[in-house]
Amino acid sequence: FSKFLFAKDWLIETKLKIEDLGSPRNAMIIAFLSNLLFAFTLAMILSIINVDLRTSLGLAVIMAIGITAAQTAPSFAFEGRSLRLYLIYASQYVVEFITVTLILILM
To answer: What gap in Å lies between CA 78 and CA 31, rounded to an integer?
Structure first.
């Protein structure tokens, strides 16, 4: 997580310290590849439905909350993670969906 946005809260909620995290190399590779897949999939969806910017952003928020965040909630519940940590992740999903949608639509 970005130090600018959620890093401090994420570390508190996960009960981790920066020193515990080690090298981010593998995580960054996985994040990069999964984000490429995410951007490609979202590009395909937006291309198929061919709607304006406002509708695309609305759809991005709906997908982030109604699909991604909703699918993540049971994992957090069964793992006993806090609501605050879940909201950090859910907020990240919304920001990611909106950002990628803006990039794709404005290209």
So the answer is: 24
Give the pLDDT confidence of 24-74 residue by residue, as tens digits. 889 899 999 999 999 999 999 999 999 999 999 999 999 999 999 999 999
Is residue 97 classed exposed, middle or buried when 0-12, 13-18 and 19+ CB atoms within 10 A define those classes? buried
Which residue from 96, 76, 94 is spatially nearest to 86, judged by alpha carbons? Answer: 76
d(CA 60, CA 38): 12
Q: How is residue 25 written in tokens?
A: 């190399």
Name residues whose C-beta falls within 8 Å of residue 49's C-beta, 6 or more positions apart in sequence.
59
pTM of the model: 0.83
**Strand (E) or helix (H) holding 69:** none
